[in-house]
């Protein structure tokens, strides 16, 4: 069953033909790409903030599923219909620095602040880079944070000197939280003065020093979000670039921001977010500090390796939760791929190539941007007939993880 994804035009999205989302969405519905539209996200799922539609009739996907529950699969009926939200994301400028709550935290926030936090589900997620994707993710190793505190004098303009000195002597958790609170609560005029001093001081420094102290990144942040409290958070969070095909799993509480690039994203079916910086939107600093994971991670600890199958033409991304998994499949021209008989539904999007899906009496053409919903317990043939290799990304309930969470008898 072919779907039309829901387009989100957030202001941070890539404009026009620079956006992977634009190419996928516009090609799938045969419309012109608008150079003045920020094509930010393409949603595939049934979330109320952006539901997919059935291409043949334009009815909401949830309407069809409510009348045909067998196509979801018995297991996922137990997991509340579609347990994930599948996306393609195109980032032109940094998203807010944010965290997502756990299930317990989401329920608590809904009870305490229902007008702000309306979604009661958690939002663990996984991203796979489609090209070079710059990100901030998780707190840096302690030695890196301490180096920046010693070597960047402007930090003393937004964090009390005594607090920095105490933390450098003995890095206690409560002092770390106090440093974050000081940074994220600073007045706009203080941030303006601090950023100006930093940029003027490093403007004529060597390229080596500019790189060492993230001059270009901070300059970009200051242009995108002038005087924002999140601008210097790059000294506390890991800043790195994912190459095409590399992936990270972002658990609840992990602070993160996508800075520039395009990616596949899959998350639990939630739009729950707590922001702390790099945004003009509401920042909930108290809640951010309440639920943020303060653990330090190396970049190697964050990157999740895909598992190759079938001589590398199938790559499986298997996160540690049951709501979703992702598989990348490459089909060479003239070749046919048969989907496995699976106890739950799956969805896929075509990233490149042309071909067809289905049996002889029910074939449908597929092309770049095509999105399909495959029914549970049915096999499908997908054939690449034109162009270079066909590349598809599949998302599905991660039933193996589900079984592992409910039983100790799985091999």
Low-confidence stretches: 76-80, 402-411
Radius of gyration: 23 Å
* Span of the ends, CA to CA: 33 Å
Beta-strand portion reads 25-35%
GO biological process, one term: GDP-mannose biosynthetic process
Cofactor: Zn(2+)
EC number: 5.3.1.8
Active site: 275
Secondary structure layout plus pairing:
Blueprint: E1 2-4, E2 6-8, E3 14-15, H1 20-29, E4 38-39, E5 41-44, E6 53-54, H2 61-67, H3 74-78, E7 84-91, E8 97-99, H4 103-112, E9 125-129, E10 133-139, H5 142-151, H6 161-169, H7 173-184, H8 188-202, H9 207-212, H10 215-224, E11 237-242, E12 247-250, E13 256-268, E14 274-277, H11 285-291, H12 299-302, E15 303-304, E16 307-309, E17 314-317, E18 325-331, E19 336-338, E20 346-357, E21 364-366, E22 371-374, E23 381-396, H13 399-406
Antiparallel strand pairs: 1-6, 1-22, 2-5, 3-4, 5-7, 7-13, 8-14, 9-12, 9-13, 10-11, 10-13, 12-15, 16-17, 17-18, 18-23, 19-23, 20-21, 20-22, 20-23
Helix pairs in contact: 6-7, 8-10
InterPro entries: Man6P_Isoase-1, Mannose-6-P_Isomerase, PMI_typeI_cat, PMI_typeI_hel, RmlC-like_jellyroll, RmlC_Cupin_sf
Keywords: Isomerase, Metal-binding, Zinc
Pfam family, one: PMI_typeI_hel
